[in-house]
Amino acid sequence: MEGISKISSHPTRFKHLSVSTFSSSSDMTHLQEDSIKNMISDPDIEELNLQGKNLTAFPSVINHLVKLRVLDLSNNSITAISDNIVNFVNLRQLSLHKNYLSHVPIIIDELANLNVLDLSSNQLSSVPATIVNLKNLQTLNLNSNQINIFPKPICHIPKIIKLEIADNNIHSLPMQISDLVSLNEMCLDNNKLTFLPIQFFELVNLTHLSLCENQLTNLSDRVEKLQEMQVLKLSKNCLESLPKELFTCVKLEKLLVDNNQLTYLHKHIGNLYNLKELSVSKNKLKKLPFGLSHLQNITILDASYNELQNIPIELKNCSQIVSANLSNNKLSEFPTAFSIMPNLLNLNLSHNQITYLNFDVCCMKSLQYFNISGNKISSFPIHLCKVWNLTYLDISENGMKDIPNDISQLRNLVNLYLQNNEFKEINKNICNLADLKVLDISNNQIKAIPTQIANLTNIIELNLSNNQLPSFPIEICQLTSLQKLKISQPFGAKLRDIPFEVGNFVNLQEFDIEDNEIPLLPNNIELMRNLTTFKAANNRIRQIPNFITALSKLQHLDLKGNKLSSLPRDFGRLKALEEIQLDANPLVKPPIQVCEAEKLFPIDEYLRCTAIRDKKLLEKIIKVITQKVSSEDFEHLCKKLHLPHENVALLSKARFDISCFRICFVEKISNSLERLVMLPHFLRFASRWFPSQDDVPEIHMGENMNFQVDQKCGSNVS
């Protein structure tokens, strides 16, 4: 509350107050009324931010702030707007975004100076008729409410220039929509509109119109009236064609018609000479019109997920294109037009049927991002090695068998994806790519890693999964910059050990060794202090060493499908753990039922109680051994614990002095203690020394996964 006292002592200094600055975690709900008054005692405050304070009601203690011009009450739990709202006659901006409002009071019209009203993400089904009296309102946001019928009063707000009413359930627009003569921007995304009334096209001042995620089947030819239109978004509708009249709207700069049913584009699209961005992805286009080549200002073209078989060479005239996406089509040849675009930075031709990259590809001197994955290129195109500005290259999922030495010329590469090919080795020249940060060579037939890989001193992600490596590649253990390492082998040669050198991965955050045959984890994994995700599912791990509890940042641990029967006693020290997967293990301590929630708390609780139980059981065993066990039985017990002969001799001498024996016994069997207190056959072996099984302490589960040890096994031994 230090910030509060500062405000109180200098009340006239604050005209703009954000309470979140001063009470980050102490929500307004938990502050006393007088404390709130102290925070906002200055009546001259003009801007007040109370967002995210868990308010459940409109705060009455701000009623005196009559000079407020900006009030932000978003991200609270307010259910109603107080009638005291009328006090804020100077209010220009009011945000009640993300509350629980079900209605707006009719007195809202008293806020005559209001310019911006944000009522998005509430539970409104309508707005009051009096909203028309907000003569100065320019921006109204009603997104994400429960409005089924477009509120007609909105149509009569005289100065409104921006209207957002997306994410509702509106089926149609009223004829009165034409009265919004000043409207510049309108968003009706994610409603259920099937058509636009003819009156809609009287909104001749519209510059930005978004109608995405509706059910429009056609666009009226009256769209030609919208000559001021600069941005038109019609994504995710049911349009089968676009009217040629649309292409008279020559001020259009952005046209998005992706995710429709378009089978062709009209040749007059070339009239949109101001167009900068065009998206026609996820339609049914078989070709691009010649007129597209007239769009000399276009910078972004997305025609992915269509049925295009070729790209007209005339597209080269679109010399301003910076980014082009032609992925998931039926192209069989590299589109030469792109090699002549001097400003092209990003090109995606993935998942086509291209078999060869010709010499033209080396002309793309500016290209930085190139994705040619999922094609039918059997040989790494050597011409590609002359595209020297490449920083991102994805040539995965082809049929490539080798990598040319010239790949070392791509000195600016940061991301290189070579997975799902037929490489049998890693060309050592890749190791000369000093700027490389991400390398994926998974799903190949690689049998060895070159020692030169240590030269990749900047690499942060490496994927070697599903290869034919005979053992963990110790060569990569010098890559201390690694943050993400994946060697999962569901379809590759199985790893059977992890070398001690993995302790060098001091910056590693994600480590994936799933689907191998690893039985043990090396002790120095504890040096990976930055590890947040560890995946070792489907191995043969029998024991989690206690040192894993040193991984204080670990959030996700996947050990399902191993041979674990117990977890470390200090497992609860992994306080950052959010998800624990232990399915398909023969767990006894704790039982698998305790682990089903995949959360730390019940596991920690059970292990805590287990430790108490084991201590009691051990104490009882010590007393029984010192009082009731014969020399022959004692030697038999020591053999079961696999104790060396010299330890047996020492314990035999100390056996009848309980204090001395306790010290020696615990010290000598420290490595066998888990075996002693867990093996059921030991209790059966020792049953003749216990009068009944009731002497063995048990763990009981209470409500909310709370556990407790019963009070059996007292201090007296029968």
TrEMBL record:
Keywords: Leucine-rich repeat, Repeat. It holds the Pfam family LRR_14. SMART domains: LRR_BAC (SM00364), LRR_SD22 (SM00365), LRR_TYP (SM00369). Residues 68-146, 416-513 form the Disease resistance R13L4/SHOC-2-like LRR domain. InterPro entries: Leu-rich_rpt, Leu-rich_rpt_typical-subtyp, LRR_dom_sf, LRR_domain-containing, LRR_R13L4/SHOC2-like. Gene3D superfamilies: Ribonuclease Inhibitor. One of its GO terms (cellular component) is cytoplasm. The keyword Repeat applies. This is Leucine-rich repeat and death domain-containing protein 1. It comes from Callorhinchus milii.
